[in-house]
Amino acid sequence: MNRVVPQLISEGKVARPVLGVGLINPALIRNLAVPGLAVANVTEKSGAEKAGIRPAQTDRRGRRMLGDVIVRVEGKPTQTVDDLYHILKNRKSGEVVEVVVLREEQEVTLQVTLSPNPGF
Questions:
Q1: Which of 15, 43, 109, 112 holds its CA 20 to 30 A away from the CA of 67?
Q2: CATH of the domain at 57
């Protein structure tokens, strides 16, 4: 709250940092027992793209294949979108955060530079 009001006054908006990923709705993949947040897409030129986060893909037969699953950010588990929001809410664009993804059954640690959310 202490950061929001001054930013609203000075800039007329609140710039919340983002990783640069779109997430798959957890309800759609609940049966897969995914242990985190599944990445649906990665924003072009975002920190996520530069760090190498992999989105879901479609194979030659048209089947969807799961991409990276975000399991921790800054050492904190990311089971829900709210978890991710709470981890990032006090961060600023340009800061680097440690993101652990599950990729092909192995954990991979990536350094992601946060981007400003273009929607705010």
A1: 15
A2: 2.30.42.10
Instruction: Report residue 9 as tokens.
Output: 């006054």
Look up tokens 């600023």; give the residue. Answer: 92
In a domain, 4, yes or no: no
Q: Return per-residue pLDDT of the chain as tens, 120 residues.
A: 455 555 445 555 566 899 999 999 888 877 778 889 999 999 999 999 999 999 999 889 988 889 999 999 999 999 999 999 999 998 999 999 999 999 998 999 999 999 988 654
Which residue's structure tokens are 């190498």?
Answer: 52
Structural tokens at position 105: 């059954």
Secondary structure letter of residue 20 according to DSSP = S
Per-residue CA distances from 43 to 6, 13, 24, 89 (Å): 29, 21, 14, 19
* Closest listed residue to residue 23, CA positions, set 11, 6, 37, 8: 37
pTM for the whole thing?
A: 0.84
Q: State the CB neighbour count (10 A cutoff) for residue 66.
A: 19
Domain containing 29 equals 16-114
